Amino acid sequence: MTVRPLAIIPIKDCCGCEACANICPKSCITMQPDEQGFMHPIIDEAVCINCDLCRKACPILGEKSIGVAPKVIACKNRNDNIRSNSSSGGVFTALAEHIINDGGVVYGAAFNMQMEVGHQRIESIEELSALRGSKYTQSRIGDCLTRVKEDLRSGRKVLFTGTPCQIGGLRSYLGKNYEGLYCIEVVCHGIPSPAIFRHYLNSLETKAGSKISEFNFRDKTESWQQYSIRVKFENGALIHQRGAENPFQRGFIADLYTRPSCTACQFKKFASGADITLGDFWGSGIFGKEYNDDRGISLVCINSDKGEKLFNYIKSELFDIRPSTLLDATQFNPCIVRSTTMHPKSEKFWRAYKSEDFDALVTRLLHVPAWKTKLKTLPAYAKAVVKKIINVCIRRK
Ligand SMILES: Cc1cc2nc3c(=O)[nH]c(=O)nc-3n(C[C@H](O)[C@H](O)[C@H](O)COP(=O)(O)OP(=O)(O)OC[C@H]3O[C@@H](n4cnc5c(N)ncnc54)[C@H](O)[C@@H]3O)c2cc1C
Ligand code: SF4
Ligand code: SF4
Ligand code: SF4
Predict the structure, then answer these.
(1) CA distances (Å), origin 82, targets 77, 213, 291
(2) Which residues are bridge partners to 389 per DSSP?
(3) Which of 112, 227, 250, 378 is 20 to 30 A from residue 369's alpha carbon, by CA?
(4) Which residues' Cβ are closer than 6 Å to ligand 4?
């Protein structure tokens, strides 16, 4: 066996969409974790027949859709229970219920028993709760792209949901449009390493002396805007901690352990070909104070005629529907159009995480000295003077 990384694109550009592994007719591509725990394709050269299908299916190499100016809407799911259990306003569930009631199937990210995140195929309303809610770590696609094609060929409607690069990967793998396919992407900040998520879970399980049975990244019991992380253990222990104070979430938002490809994401600005984009409508203040009940508001960008038709089907399941603009959406949610930047101390994190307590390490790396915080509040001329003094001191050293 002669195995090596699949070299169709530079490793740093690979988003791990698994299109190459799904298309290979000889099954000689397997996805394996790199030293940071991100999945990358590995090829067994002895089996490869040089058919070039992997290159053709790679969305990084393919042409991207030209991002249209979408229709932008704010709205909420009518069903309080569904909205409370969704990360934003619960639009995903309304869309998925419509497809299932129409005899279709839905693909999305779910936890398995080992608390790993991977895409699953479901076809009943009862199974939907597994896909509900954001999981902030990269979801494994597995053989889902192959299964989507089988479903479409058998005439089933398919709702495929995921990050923009996963939508790009599916479209590139399929290579043509299918009438029955609906693609829904989430606005994507960037994706944290699954290995670090596991490492964090291990640290919690060691402290609690028990396995984790449930993990909720977006608990809204107290607030949507100031959501919490809620972790249940088999021994009954419970952690309920504000996202802004939770070490994993802080490291995620600060990009301490984000996938390198996310820093130059090729699927921003609706370039994935998704029919609808879903996110949090963080700028809901533009509709007045009373619009925000702090239980979740969805941002919906309708990017195609197909997306519009689908959205019209579920309109009766939603309320407080307000038309908005892309400018409103992006000023509060820049991830729609802009790639993230890796934290300057990311390398320090990777060097230290195996030997230091997770919580202490994240706190140390993200600590901002008081003088820096104060500096930010100074007027521009005073900032310039302080910077000059610092530079002179550095030069003298
Ligand atoms: C990694 C990640 C980063 C995000 N970053 C932002 C952001 O910066 N700004 C913003 O406004 N919104 C962001 N979102 C989207 C937001 O958190 C909600 O997922 C989205 O608004 C849908 O909410 P909902 O209430 O309609 O449905 P929910 O039920 O909350 O959402 C479930 C949907 O999310 C998908 N999903 C969940 N986890 C993953 C995953 N790991 N990989 C792929 N798909 C997943 C499911 O397949 C399903 O379609 C992000 C989501 C993820 C997964
Ligand atoms: S060239 Fe063809 S056989 Fe070889 S790895 Fe790519 S898809 Fe598989
Ligand atoms: S198809 Fe996806 S997983 Fe394969 S090399 Fe391209 S980006 Fe990476
Ligand atoms: S930021 Fe881009 S490359 Fe990274 S996970 Fe999101 S869609 Fe994929």
Answers:
(1) 7, 21, 18
(2) none
(3) 227
(4) 15, 163-165, 188, 190-191, 259, 261-262, 265, 267
Going by alpha carbons, the residue nearest to atom 2 of ligand 3 is 17
Closest ligand (CA of 299): 1
Residue ranges, comma separated, of all CATH 3.30.70 domains in the chain are 3-57
Q: Whose CA is nearest to atom 29 of ligand 1?
A: 132
Residue 79, helix vs strand vs coil: coil
pTM reported for the whole predicted model: 0.94
Look at residue 134 in the predicted model and tell me its pLDDT.
98
According to the model, what pLDDT value does residue 2 have? 86
Tell me the average confidence (pLDDT) per consecutive run of 10 residues in the chain, 397 residues long.
90 98 98 98 97 98 81 97 98 98 98 97 98 98 98 98 98 97 98 98 98 98 97 98 97 98 96 97 92 97 97 96 94 94 98 97 89 65 72 65
Topology classification of domain 3-57: Alpha-Beta Plaits (3.30.70)
Residues contacting residue 47 through CB under 8 Å, at least 6 positions apart: 26, 27, 28
Ligand 1 atom at minimal distance to the Cα of residue 91: 26
